[in-house]
Amino acid sequence: MRNNTELHVLDNGITFITTQARDSTSENNGYSFVHCKITGIGSNTYLGRAWRTSPMVVYAYTSMFEIINPAG
């Protein structure tokens, strides 16, 4: 879990914040971002990319600025 963290994107191309991998929903793992800020340059950053069949990423109470692509 990341708490009160700033994630700063440095690339102006297509970028991804996470690529979490789980093979099953019964696995007890994933990424959590709580009270964080996502900042940076560009406007083509995605929150995540599925790597395996059941990825788990949670963004709770996180400020996301205009760098996040509306598609996700």
Please summarize what this structure is.
The protein contains no helices and eight strands.
Descriptive account of the structure:
The protein has 72 residues and is mainly beta. It has one domain. The protein contains no helices and 8 strands. The strands form 3 sheets. It has a 3-stranded parallel sheet, with no helix packed on it. Strands 2-5-8 form a 3-stranded parallel sheet, with no helix packed on it. The chain starts with a strand and ends in an 8-residue tail after the last strand. 7% of the residues are buried. The model has no long low-confidence stretch (mean pLDDT 92).
- Overall helicity: under 10%
Q: Give the DSSP E fraction (strand runs of 2 or more residues).
A: 35-45%
Please tell me what the overall shape is: globular
Helix count equals 0
Uncertain segments are none
Structural class by SSE content: mainly beta
Question: How many structural domains in the coordinates?
Answer: 1
Main location: secreted
EC number: 3.1.1.11
GO molecular function, one term: pectinesterase activity
InterPro entries: Pectin_lyas_fold (IPR012334), Pectin_lyase_fold/virulence (IPR011050), Pectinesterase_cat (IPR000070)
Brief descriptors of the model:
72 residues, mainly beta, three-stranded parallel sheet, 8 strands, aspartyl esterase, pectinesterase activity, secreted, cell wall
Can you lay out the helices and strands and say which pair or pack?
Elements: E1 2-3, E2 6-9, E3 15-18, E4 31-34, E5 37-40, E6 45-48, E7 57-60, E8 63-64
Parallel strand pairs: 1-4, 2-5, 3-6, 4-7, 5-8
